[in-house]
Structures are given as structure tokens and as C-alpha cells.
Design brief:
One of its GO terms (molecular function) is transcription cis-regulatory region binding. This protein is an alpha/beta fold. The protein is built from 12 helices and 12 strands. It folds into 3 domains: 44 residues, 434 Repressor (Amino-terminal Domain), CATH 1.10.260.40; 121 residues, Response regulator (Rossmann fold); 121 residues, Response regulator (Rossmann fold, 3-Layer(aba) Sandwich). The strands form 3 sheets. It has a 6-stranded parallel sheet, with helices on one face. A 4-stranded parallel sheet has the order 7-6-8-9, sandwiched between helices. It has a two-stranded antiparallel sheet with strand order 10-12. β6, α9 and β7 form a beta-alpha-beta unit.
């Protein structure tokens, strides 16, 4: 038999007070004494009382629930984003409703038009599916509180948090130049805004050093063909800056299969610093993106907006290069190493 839900009336009876007193105690009203409040809170935990979300929303105008919309929870860095979101929300007394999305336009449209309007949330944190930007912007203009964690699309028409893609790749490319590399290629796929910024950072460093550039691109989600091209053309360059760690892993494997030594013949760098970056052979030089901090910052901004505070249009958190064996000849390590 299903257990009956514990009500506010049950809690009031257990505490020997009225329902209004319980309500005021749970909501922190100053007219309830500290001893009474503590006793009610203790009893609520003991008997398993959970406030009704709908009743709370009617009373306060808020659900104390935030939506988290993500296009792919299987990405290696997504758990850190989700952890940052949930831990900051919990610290502020909010719950998180996670909504994964697939890549289909129909699913995106159905979500915006049919699901999102009835979700019991006070606001939305999202890693932007590019096809949803305009629809989310329309909802934001209509009053929905939104903060984006992303830099893959052009500036959205709502607040966002992002990281230093261009600056960080410039720095890691400068590291390669400082270690004596002079023929440095850039490899990437998916020509999204964040990857263009990373390519620009690579170009900034080469232009400042007076060095030529070699850009290798693919639109194929399977990185093996691009990695094979890198290995086939490895005589043309002595380092490869890849736009993200997953591509760097594939490039490392292709170079190894082609008999090329890393970093002796070709240095390799990535971007993201997913956990596997420490486990490759050699360990991968990369850029550590602040995924946990991005999630926490987005929730902090969103709760400020929900609670009526002004928030900035854009917050930028730094990503830091991490030098490991895939680019480090001998003891040369001008950046933060591990």
C-alpha cells in the first residue's frame, strides 16, 4: 500500500500548533520564536513532511525550481556543468529539473511550444541547442528568466556565461612557440562560435610571432578522417593545436599508428581538460575550461533575476592552459604544468 503523503495539518498536529504557525515557521517569518521554529523544522524532517510545490507557488509566486536544458548529457564535460548547477541551486534552496534534448528540430519545437510553458520552474539555465536560440529569446522577452551556459552560438538575446576561448588558445599556442615549435597547425570541426574563437586565438599567436598558419577543418562528426589527414601531413608541421580534447585523443591515436612520436616529432594540445586528458599516453596538454564554475555562475545569476535583482548581460570566466607531456620537451613548461 502506498504511503499517505504527510500534510501540513499532520505537522501542525505533531507540533501542537496551528497550520498558519507551521507555514510562517517554514517560511522564516520573524513572528515565530526560534525555539518553535527549530522544533517544527525538526519534526518536519522526522515525519517526512515535504511542502506542496503548487501550494508554495500560490503563496510565494515561486516554485523554488529551476529548469536545466542540455542538448547532450553524454558529453564528457557535462557532469561538471550539472554538478555546478545542482550544488549552487541546492545551496540557495532551489531544486533542479533536468531536461535533456536530442538534436531534432521537431523535439526542440515541441519542447518550447508544448512542454516549457507548463513546467513548474521559475527560470531556465540552458546549454544552448543552436536551433532554440530564437525561440528561447522570444520566451525571455515574454518574461521567462533565462541564463545560457554556452559560447557555441552568436551572442544570445539573454544573459549568458562563457569562458575565454580565444585568449586561452592564444596562450597555449604561445607555449608551443616558446618550446621551439615553428610549424603549427590548427585542427577543428563544427564551425561554431566557440571553435571560431579558438581558431582566432591560434591565429593571434602565430601572427604576433610572424609564423605561417595551417588550418585543417572538417564538418564530419567522426573525427577519424581529420585525424588521419593530420597524421598523413605530419611532415608539414611540428605541432597541432586541436579545438577540443576528443579530437586531440583521435589525433594522438592517428599519429601513434603512423609511427609519429608525441611530443618529439609533433606536439599536440586540446581544449576542455576532460578527465581522460590526464590518462592518455602521453598525457595531454590542454586548456582547463571552468565547467563547474560556469554552471554555478549561471544558477547564481538566474536566482538573482528570479528574485528581482539586476544581473549583467554577460559573465566571462577564465580557462587556464595546463601543460603536460604531449607538448613539453624536457623541462620547458612556461605555463601551469602538472
Amino acid at each position: 500500500m502506498a504511503r499517505r503523503r504527510v500534510t501540513m495539518a499532520d505537522l501542525a498536529t505533531a507540533a501542537g500548533v496551528s497550520k498558519p504557525t507551521v507555514s510562517r515557521a517554514l517560511n522564516g517569518h520573524p513572528d515565530v520564536g526560534a525555539e518553535t521554529r527549530e522544533r517544527i523544522l525538526r519534526l518536519a524532517e522526522e515525519i517526512g513532511y515535504v511542502p506542496s510545490m503548487s501550494a508554495q507557488a500560490l503563496r510565494t509566486g515561486r516554485f523554488k525550481m529551476l529548469g536545466l536544458l542540455v542538448p547532450n548529457i553524454a558529453w564528457d564535460w557535462m557532469p561538471d556543468v550539472i554538478r555546478g548547477v545542482t550544488e549552487e541551486a541546492d545551496r540557495r534552496g532551489y531544486a533542479i529539473l533536468l531536461q535533456p534534448m536530442d538534436a531534432s528540430a521537431k523535439t526542440e519545437a515541441d519542447f518550447v511550444e508544448r512542454v516549457l510553458p507548463v513546467l513548474p520552474v521559475d527560470g531556465l539555465v540552458l546549454v544552448i541547442p543552436p536551433g532554440l536560440v530564437e525561440r528561447i529569446a522570444e520566451l525571455h522577452a515574454g518574461g521567462l528568466k533565462v541564463v545560457a551556459i554556452d559560447d557555441r552560438v552568436e551572442r544570445p538575446q539573454f544573459p549568458s556565461v562563457e569562458t575565454t576561448d580565444r585568449e586561452s588558445v592564444r596562450r597555449v599556442t604561445e607555449h608551443l612557440i616558446a618550446t621551439g615549435r615553428r610549424r603549427i597547425a590548427f585542427a577543428s570541426s563544427d564551425d561554431t562560435r566557440n571553435l571560431r574563437l579558438r581558431r582566432d586565438g591560434y591565429r593571434d599567436a602565430l601572427a604576433a610571432a610572424g609564423l605561417p598558419e595551417t588550418v585543417l577543418m572538417t564538418s564530419d562528426l567522426d573525427h577519424r578522417a581529420l585525424a588521419a589527414e593530420v597524421a598523413r601531413r605530419a611532415d608539414e608541421f611540428d605541432a597541432v593545436v586541436t579545438a577540443f580534447d576528443d579530437l586531440a585523443f583521435t589525433v594522438l591515436a592517428a599519429l601513434r599508428d603512423a609511427g609519429r612520436r608525441v611530443p618529439e616529432d609533433v606536439a599536440v594540445t586540446g581544449f576542455d581538460d576532460v578527465p581522460a586528458a590526464r590518462l592518455t599516453h602521453p598525457a595531454l596538454t590542454t586548456v582547463r575550461a571552468p565547467f563547474y564554475e560556469l554552471g554555478a555562475a549561471a544558477v547564481h545569476m538566474l536566482i538573482q533575476a528570479v528574485e528581482g535583482e539586476a544581473i549583467p548581460d554577460r559573465v566571462v570566466l577564465p580557462a587556464e592552459p595546463v601543460v603536460r607531456e604531449s607538448s613539453r620537451p624536457g623541462d620547458v613548461h612556461p605555463l601551469n604544468g602538472e
